[in-house]
Amino acid sequence: MLVRRIITAVLLISSATFVAFFEGGFLFPLLILVCHSGIYMEWHSLLNTSRVQKISGLMALIIIFVAVISEKFSQNLILALLFLSFLFWFLASPAIVLNKYRASKGMSVIVAFIMCLASMIALYYAFVEGLMFLFSVLSLVWIIDTGAYFAGKIFGHRKLSPMVSPNKTWEGVYGALFLYFLYSLFMVKIEGTWQDLVFNYFGTWWLIVLSSVLFSVSIFADLFESKLKRTSGKKDSGNILPGHGGLFDRFDATLAVGPLIVFFNITGQRL
């Protein structure tokens, strides 16, 4: 299982790197669109929606994303969308995971659309900002996942949320936090990363606050997707990625952290 996870991860990173560098990365927006289309369809499968709902929503995603990269959308509207995404992942998803709120099926469909759209736009903006910025956004989730996986495997025994995801442990969270702390100390020294830019725009305390929020959001995004799978009776959101499951399984936390990072970056540029 571990070997398959590593091989799949290496292939994903290698493919994304090639697309990002090939001919100036002109195909990277297409990669973003393809991945998020897959995530969107998997999310709808977990919600057990109709084919009409899936296809119509997907077509709307494509049209709006093309409009965004064609600079047909107001930046203020984009900022509002990114902030709305943050509010969901920071407030609503923990409430859903902790059984404090139960979204209707109609609301869940709307949420899936908005979260996927916000993430698509965020990753596109991250790509435009620079490859180092994009890498720092994506690697944040890789570091947290890696720390949680190995710490959980080696030391894990206290269950984090047994009714939602029996395999996740508090020791995994602590391992993720430790590795994330070391990673953040390293990345803030590298020019062009989101950590470097937030530090320059807002200062040390805002960087600490944002980093803490992103860590929390990443953990709850993972649990939120696990909750969706448990509710739908499925082990994985898909099977396209050996050792990982589906695209939603692999990129659930990326959907959550990207919009907030880009929101802060755009806001900082305006100051």
Task: Furnish the topology, listing elements before pairings.
Layout: H1 2-21, H2 28-47, H3 51-69, H4 75-97, H5 105-129, H6 131-155, E1 159-161, E2 165-169, H7 170-187, H8 194-202, H9 204-232, H10 247-270
Antiparallel strand pairs: 1-2
Helix pairs in contact: 2-3, 2-5, 3-5, 4-5, 4-9, 4-10, 5-6, 5-10, 6-7, 8-9, 8-10, 9-10
Question: What would the keywords be for this entry?
Answer:
single chain; 271 residues; mainly alpha; two-stranded antiparallel sheet; 2 strands
**Total strands:** 2
Integer tally of domains: 1
Percent range for β-strand residues: under 5%
What pattern of helices and strands is seen along the backbone?
Answer: HHHHHHEEHHHH
Poorly predicted runs of 5 or more residues:
none
Shape, per Cα inertia axes: globular
Radius of gyration: 18 Å
Sheet with most strands: strand arrangement? 1-2
What would the average pLDDT be, to the nearest integer? Answer: 89
* Structural class estimated from helices and strands: mainly alpha
Level of helix content?
over 70%
Task: State the separation between the terminal residues, measured CA to CA.
Answer: 47 Å
Sheet with most strands? 2 strands, antiparallel
Determine the number of helices (DSSP H or I, runs of at least 4 residues): 10
